[in-house]
Amino acid sequence: MSDNRRKIMLVDDDTACRQQGRAILKDYYEVYPFHSARKLFEVLEEFVPDLILLDIQMPVIDGFEAIKRLKSDERFAQIPVIFLTASNDKDSVIKGSKLGAAGFVTKPFSAPDLCDHIERCLTYAALTVPPVKKEPNDEKPVVLAIDDAPDVLKAVHAMLRDKYKVFTLPKPEKLSEFLKKTTPDLFLLDFQMPGLSGFDLIPIIRELPEHKDTPIIFLTSEGTYDHLTHAVDLGARDFIVKPFDMDVLREKVAHHILHK
User: Could you please report the per-residue DSSP string of 40-79?
Assistant: First the structure.
């Protein structure tokens, strides 16, 4: 264990995939390939990696069951997990994201694509996500949620109002006007809205010097691989699939505000 490089566990029952992944990553990371999730959990008792690459379709314990076990164990819950999947379909992305996946890479993968996803996750996902600590008299961080669905805005406000000053904006065309009066610490953007979409709003936000690094999280029911990749390329930090879980929303908002 003298190697100081970041440790990646690669779990896939396909020998060729394990060999390809190790060949791509071995010059940059300390790579540990495993043929099953059962072996993964055995080794996790010995040491914790910086990131796990996890195949979805495996016998006995598949990727979905494996990530459930990881996220339910406080020792491993904060390890970023990237799913490796040959089925680049919406249902797999939505299910995986709800279970806590940090990203998705479609097989067969290329070296740039795999390395890019790993670096993004290692940049934006910490092994431990400490809570946002505020003194009683400190002003709460400001969260702006933009969505044309009133029920979504009400849910976001109800879930976050105890720790944040939450503003909701049902009309995306009002964003520029709003930003003249208030400076959010984080944006929650709906993916699909009439007039201006979430994709359209990201460049507007990033053009402002005070918001060139402000965290942006997408709220989306269209969680396809291409959409999520495009959002990240434009400057989004993360995504949450609707209908979302309160714990997932609160954890991701706290993480990105803390590391903005």
Answer: HHHHHTT---SEEEEESS-SSS-HHHHHHHHHHSTTTTTS
Longest distance between any two alpha carbons in the chain, whole Å: 57
The CATH superfamily label for domain 142-258 reads Response regulator (3.40.50.2300)
219 Cβ neighbours under 8 A, 6+ residues apart? 145, 147, 152, 188, 189, 190, 191, 198, 239, 240, 242, 244
Taking the C-alpha atoms of residue 68 and residue 63, their distance in angstroms, rounded to an integer, is 9
The token pair at 152 is 């979504």
| Residue 129 DSSP SS3 | coil
Across 41-50, 81-90, 176-185, least confident range: 81-90
**Taking a C-beta distance cutoff of 8 angstroms, is the pair 223, 94 a contact?**
yes
What CATH code is assigned to 7-124?
3.40.50.2300
Average pLDDT rounded to a whole number, residues 152-179 = 89
Q: Does residue 41 carry a pLDDT above 90?
A: yes
Please report the pLDDT score of residue 126 as a whole number: 42
**What average pLDDT does range 247-252 have in this prediction?**
90
**Residues 6 or more apart in contact with residue 134 via CB below 8 angstroms:** 140, 141, 163
Q: Where are the domains of the chain?
A: 7-124, 142-258
CA–CA separation, 13 vs 37, rounded Å? Answer: 9
**Residue 131 pLDDT more than 80?**
no
- What confidence category does residue 224 fall into, taking pLDDT thresholds of 50, 70 and 90? low
Arithmetic mean of pLDDT, 93-113: 84
Domains 7-124 and 142-258 share a fold: yes
